[in-house]
């Protein structure tokens, strides 16, 4: 077939990829803002206009058309005006490795499909485990932090559903124990923890909220009380989840203190370091992860603070035996008895929730060889240093009010100068964000902290400068000024321009809520 990659089409593959690369490179170099600002209605019309059952246009035509539709309207994470979510610009060697693995299309579920790819992934797992401090740890790459957290809690559930002799509980005994399992986590933990408990068949009240301190970090005293309360209720602590880099505040829970309590209670400790995993290679902030080596499982997202293309995450465990709890044998794939099979213990499907799985580890491999662990650590430190500089910049700002500290690279703030009460400042948050998004000039996020809505910058671009961030904040100010001015006009019974413009609408457009 002419459109399948093979020996006969190798030259066509090279030409097509060169065209794509040249086009994307040009767009990256010339992007003037993070988003074009097209409305959802406009984008929907463009998507609907493509006849997917129409006459084929060939590889070159399809790729040009796709670039016009997708690349022209994509969000560019490398642009300094992007400061919304946990999206990062990506390392060049990883992008090259992405093209390589996509073309070769390896699946790393069994050794006979992947050969050296399995060995390379295992080497990276061992490297990451070593950085954590797991002397003989193991793990597997996943699609992201949500899957890694689900996987960790699955393993914790299976450990909790075994008897004193290590045998799996079955039947009524299993169902009875399942209904008593509890997961302890703070409200600042990732939502995937609560969602995972539902997927794992736990009760609706299985997640026991643990109190936090004023900065949003887990309070060890609150955890101590929660552990006692669960035991007194006759329930079972399936796992305690601490977060090394909360999504909103970018704070790291006190891992050492939590590990002490988990050891005393015999509880499974899971550290969700999806955001803060880059601290493993930091030269100045690695201490924030002190105690992580005492966890039983750890989530790390390489596609956040290791600057890898999506998707690239991993679940690491301190005891390799824990991974065996997920093993499921299939005669056609990984039979339990493999007499005569080469390397029967290297079928990674035995430790993964996925069967077919991309060789995403290749991207991290290439990046480590290109820039080194210290280079990645310097990039992590750069975004954290940038956030610290922005915090200092806003400390005495008369209009933009900081709301919370951070350990990593977030900035939580709201527009609230003197004279703007809480209700008006609350209402401005989503409107400012929406106006900026619809302009395409800057993308910021919004969230709620201590019951108050606020704007959030998530700084994950090591090339961004304080002046770049000041530019985003200036757009926030200008937008808020315009919205407040519109409110004032809308409440003026006799605006000064009424006589000159008799057709001026009763409520100017700026005064309408932005949807």
Automatic annotation (TrEMBL):
Key words of the record: Decarboxylase, Lyase, Pyridoxal phosphate
Entries under PANTHER family matching the protein: CYSTEINE SULFINIC ACID DECARBOXYLASE (PTHR45677:SF8), GLUTAMATE DECARBOXYLASE-RELATED (PTHR45677)
Start-end of Low complexity biased regions: 502-515
Signal peptide per UniProt: none
UniProt name for this protein: Pyridoxal-dependent decarboxylase
Entry-linked InterPro entries: PyrdxlP-dep_de-COase, PyrdxlP-dep_Trfase, PyrdxlP-dep_Trfase_major, PyrdxlP-dep_Trfase_small
Cofactors, names only: pyridoxal 5'-phosphate
Protein source organism: Isoptericola peretonis
UniProt record similarity statement: Belongs to the group II decarboxylase family.
Keyword set includes Lyase: yes
Region (Disordered), start-end ranges: 487-515
């Amino acid at each position: 077939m002419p459109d399948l990659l093979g020996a006969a089409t190798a030259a066509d593959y090279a030409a097509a990829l060169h065209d794509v690369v040249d086009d994307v490179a040009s767009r990256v170099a010339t992007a003037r803002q993070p988003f074009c600002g097209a409305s959802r209605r406009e984008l929907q019309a463009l998507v609907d206009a493509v006849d997917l059952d129409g006459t084929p246009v060939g590889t070159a035509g399809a790729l040009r058309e796709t670039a016009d539709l997708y690349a022209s309207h994509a969000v560019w994470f490398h642009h300094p005006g992007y400061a919304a979510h946990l999206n990062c610009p990506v390392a060049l060697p990883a992008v090259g490795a992405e093209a390589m693995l996509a073309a070769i299309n390896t699946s790393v579920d069994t050794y006979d499909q992947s050969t050296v790819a399995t060995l390379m992934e295992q080497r990276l797992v061992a490297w990451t485990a070593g950085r954590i401090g797991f002397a003989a740890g193991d793990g597997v790459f996943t699609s992201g932090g949500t899957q890694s957290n689900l996987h960790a809690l699955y393993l914790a559930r299976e450990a909790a559903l075994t008897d004193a002799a290590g045998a799996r509980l079955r039947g009524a005994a299993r169902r009875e124990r399942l209904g008593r399992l509890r997961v302890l986590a703070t409200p600042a933990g990732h939502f995937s923890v609560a969602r995972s408990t539902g997927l794992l068949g736990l009760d609706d009240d299985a997640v026991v909220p643990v109190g936090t301190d004023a900065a949003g970090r887990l309070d060890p005293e609150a955890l101590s009380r929660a552990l006692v309360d669960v035991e007194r209720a006759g329930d079972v602590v399936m796992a305690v989840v601490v977060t090394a880099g909360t999504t909103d505040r970018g704070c790291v829970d006190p891992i050492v203190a939590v590990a002490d309590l988990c050891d005393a209670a015999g509880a499974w400790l899971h550290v969700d370091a999806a955001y803060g995993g880059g601290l493993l290679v930091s030269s100045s902030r690695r201490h924030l992860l002190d105690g992580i080596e005492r966890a039983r499982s750890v989530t790390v997202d390489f596609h956040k603070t290791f600057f890898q293309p999506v998707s690239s995450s991993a679940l690491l465990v301190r005891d390799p035996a824990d991974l065996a709890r997920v093993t499921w044998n299939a005669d056609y794939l990984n039979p339990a008895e493999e007499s005569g099979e080469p390397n029967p213990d290297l079928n990674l499907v035995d430790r993964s929730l996925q069967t077919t799985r991309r060789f995403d580890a290749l991207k991290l491999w290439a990046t480590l060889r290109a820039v080194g662990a210290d280079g990645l650590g310097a990039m992590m430190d750069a975004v954290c240093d940038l956030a610290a500089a922005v915090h200092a910049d806003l400390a005495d700002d008369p209009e933009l009010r900081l709301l919370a500290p951070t350990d990593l690279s977030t900035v939580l703030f709201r527009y609230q100068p003197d004279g703007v009460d809480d209700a008006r400042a609350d209402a401005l948050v989503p409107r400012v964000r929406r106006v900026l998004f619809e302009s395409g000039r800057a993308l910021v996020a919004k969230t709620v902290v201590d019951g108050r809505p606020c704007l959030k910058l998530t700084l994950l671009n090591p090339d961004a400068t304080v002046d770049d961030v000041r530019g985003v904040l200036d757009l926030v100010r200008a937008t808020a000024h315009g919205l407040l001015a519109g409110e004032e006009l809308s409440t003026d019974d006799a605006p000064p321009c009424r006589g000159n413009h008799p057709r001026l609408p009763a409520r100017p457009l700026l005064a309408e809520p932005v949807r």
